[in-house]
Amino acid sequence: MARLDYMDVYFSVQSFQEEDLRGKSAVIIDVLRAASSMVTALSNGAKKIIPVGAMEDAVRIAQTMDNKDYLLCGEQNGHKIEGFHLGNSPLEYTEDVVADKTLIINTTNGTKAIKKAALANRMYVGCFLNQKSILKALEDHDDDVVLICSGWQGKMSLEDTLFAGSIIYKMCKGKLPKNTKDGVKVAFSLYQGYKDELEKAIETSDHAIRLKELVPDGDIPFVCEVDKFDVLPGMKDGILINLNG
Length: 245
Ligand code: 3SL
Prior knowledge:
The protein is α/β, with parallel strands linked by helices and 245 residues long. It has helices at residues 34-43, 55-62, 95-98, 110-116, 131-140, 158-171, 182-194, 198-203, 206-211, 219-223, and strands at 8-10, 25-29, 48-52, 70-76, 79-80, 102-106, 122-126, 145-149, 233-236, 239-242. It has one domain: putative 2-phosphosulfolactate phosphatase (Alpha-Beta Complex).
C-alpha cells in the first residue's frame, strides 16, 4: 500500500525532472484529453499504445509497421494532426475503429509527460474514467507515488489537479494526515471543495473553455464519468498496454 506521507504531486510536465521519478510509481494524468482517450481506446480493444513526444517520431515508427496494424493519433493545440487517422477526442476511439490496432499517439502535453516519466519503476495512465483501477494499482505496491498532472504548456490545470485530489481523497478516506507534502494538500483541498460538482467545475476550466471551439460537445461530460472503464494502462518497454487485460 502506497503511503501518503511519501506521495507528491507535480502540476505540469515542466515541473518535474526525470530523476525525481526514479524507482517510484508514477500516475500520468491528462483528463482533457489524452489519458481519457487512451483509457477509452484500451477498453475498446486497442492492442497497445505507443506514446511519442513528437510528430516526426510517430511517422517514423509508423513507417516500420504494416498499414493495417496501426493508427496515427493525436492533436496539436487541440486540432487533429493533418494526415493522422484520429484526433484526441475519446469519442473517436470506438471499438469498430480501434480494436486490435496499435495506436501511435502524439499530444501537446500528455504524451510528453509519459515520455518524461521513463525512469519511474511503474507508470500508469489515469483519469476519472479508470479511477478505481488506479487506486487498486497503488494499493497493490508500496513504492513511493508521484501523481503527475500534465497541465497545459507548463501551467497547472484544474481538471488534472481534481483527479489527483480524488485519488488522495479516496486513499485517506477524506481525512488527510498532517505530514503530507504541499502538492498533496493542494490537490486534496481542491477536490474536497469541488467533489460534488465535478463536471460543472471542469466545464469552467481554462482547458475546457479553450477546447469549446475545437471539439465535440460530448467530450467534457464523457471525461467526467467516474469508473466507466476497468482499464489500467501501464508501461512495459515504452509501450502502454492494459494491465487489467
Ligand atoms: O495536451 C494534451 O496532451 C491534450 O490532451 C490536449 S487536448 O485536450 O487534446 O487539446
